[in-house]
Design a protein that fits this description.
Structural class: mainly alpha
CATH class of the largest domain: Mainly Alpha
Bound molecules: carboxymethyl coenzyme *A
Radius of gyration: 24 Å
Largest sheet: 3 strands, antiparallel
Distance between the termini: 60 Å
Number of strands: 6
Shape: globular
Number of domains: 3
Helix content: 40-55%
Strand order of the largest sheet: 1-2-3
CATH superfamily of the largest domain: Citrate Synthase, domain 1
Number of helices: 18
């Protein structure tokens, strides 16, 4: 054992190996802890618990670094296409031109959603939240592609990448009372999504390259984020050997929560509320600091970023660029900037290292692109899909054991059953 950590319990000492990651991160390997000491660790929210060794995404929360497979998020967001990044995450390397063409073509061959799935979709109410619909539709895929029809993991990966944007647009179409659009394989991934969202039988949609490029950037920024809540969910569900569809559907549900991906919708709603309330940002900063108010500044704070969220920096600049290019003057952008400036100079936020996260400005761009508020988290899910797939694939390739945390039981000790008649 070259480097080790020593633990004293009573009069005994135990040694545990220290593992070092490729970026010099350190972990104490406690795999034998319970066998050797009879103790477990407890770490609510897994704040200090590494669940896996992963070669997909590197994140340094103190330095604000995010890299997919070694490539910086800044460079990828500037230069790559979303499908290129998806390929990178899923298969480990950037694709050659031929690999890219094959990957894109495979996806195009599977964009149509089984018409029988439409019947399930039709049962949802017109005002159903699109995240609930999306997770149910993805889960339904596990019933459609089962047994002999299921094919290889590779095929299921392609099916998900291909069909998720199509299914996502259905919810929007239904909410508008409009017929759904079928995919157009002459368009690239982002343009195809936009076309399915916005084309009408009476009015074809002209893809604006500014809009398509902005969407491409946002999807890249969301594509992976190592062991966050939804990704850990995907890996945990997948560790039971549940299908890829079941695992991704669970990830979508985890993402929907307001403390996770659902924050992007909450941010815009919060900014709208502040605007409607006269734009008094100081009042909302005070509320966020008051633990009894039940109010949090949505889009602020992060479990791992304690300096800045590199995605937020890119998105803030992109928001300025997109609004300028589209000639949009969104009053909530001003409120967001004021809120950010006020929070960043406030002792409460400074002391707790609370900075704008990826969700703070993303909604402003989505809105400028014409995406309705309740679709924001769905956009996050479309972006995160290749990351979830890559993590699921890695978990499977590494033959990771079923995820099964332990607990410290604090309930009643053994007691005798009392019949109902005798109970007080
Ligand atoms: N507004 C006001 N206070 C906050 C906020 C906030 N947004 N976030 C954290 N705090 C305070 C919190 O009350 C606590 O204070 P104290 O130490 O006095 O008790 C301290 O900061 C630490 O917060 P925590 O809840 O223990 O931190 P966490 O790591 O468990 O939670 C978080 C991280 C992102 C859930 C949290 O910051 C939050 O609720 N933010 C708002 C929701 C949000 O924007 N979520 C999107 C995250 S980024 C997208 C994604 O990847 O999901």
């Amino acid at each position: 054992m070259s480097e080790f950590a020593e633990l004293s319990l009573g009069d005994k000492k135990y040694q545990f190996p220290v593992i070092t990651g490729s970026e010099d991160e350190k972990a104490i390997d406690i795999a034998k802890l319970r066998d050797e000491t009879g103790h477990i660790t407890i770490d609510s929210g897994y704040k200090n618990t590494g669940a896996t060794k992963s070669a997909i995404t590197f994140l340094d929360g103190e330095l604000g670094i995010l890299r997919y497979r070694g490539y910086s998020i800044e460079e990828l967001a500037e230069k790559a296409s979303f499908l290129e990044v998806a390929y990178l995450l899923i298969y480990g390397e950037l694709p050659t031109a031929q690999q890219y063409a094959e990957f894109e073509n495979e996806i195009k061959m599977h964009t149509i959603v089984n018409e029988d799935m439409r019947k399930i979709f039709e049962g949802f109410p017109v005002n159903a939240h699109p995240m609930g619909v999306l997770s149910a539709m993805v889960c339904a895929m596990s019933a459609f592609y089962t047994g002999e029809k299921s094919g290889s993991d590779e095929l299921n990966i392609i099916r998900l990448m291909a069909k998720m944007p199509s299914m996502a647009t259905w919810s929007y179409k239904k909410s508008q009372g409009h017929p759904v659009n079928y995919p157009n394989n002459s368009l690239d991934y982002c343009s195809n999504f936009l076309n399915m969202m916005f084309a009408l039988p009476v009015a074809p949609y002209q893809v604006n390259p500014v809009v398509s490029a902005a969407l491409n950037k946002l999807l890249i920024l969301h594509a992976d984020h190592e062991q966050n809540c939804s990704t850990s969910t995907v890996r945990l569900v997948g560790s039971s050997h549940a299908s890829l569809y079941a695992s991704i559907s669970a990830g979508i549900n985890a993402l929907s929560g307001p403390l996770h991906g659902g924050a992007n919708q909450e941010v815009i709603e919060m900014l709208e509320d502040i605007k409607a309330d006269g734009g008094d940002t100081a009042k909302y900063i005070a509320m966020a600091k008051d633990k009894n108010s039940g109010f949090r500044l949505m889009g602020f704070g992060h479990r791992v970023y304690k300096n800045f969220d590199p995605r937020a920096r890119i998105i803030k600049k992109a928001a300025d660029d997109v609004l300028a290019a589209l000639g949009i003057n969104d009053p909530v952008l001003k409120i967001a900037s004021e809120l950010e400036a006020a929070a960043l100079s406030d002792e409460y936020f400074v002391a707790r290292k609370l900075y704008p996260n990826v969700d703070f400005y993303s909604g402003i761009i989505y809105r400028a692109l014409g995406i309705p508020t309740d679709m924001f988290t769905v956009m996050f899910a479309i972006g995160r899909l290749p990351g979830w797939i890559a993590q699921w694939k890695e978990m499977k390739a590494n033959k990771e054991p079923i995820g099964r945390p332990r607990q410290v039981y604090v309930g009643a000790t053994e007691r005798a059953y009392v019949s109902m008649a005798e109970r007080a």
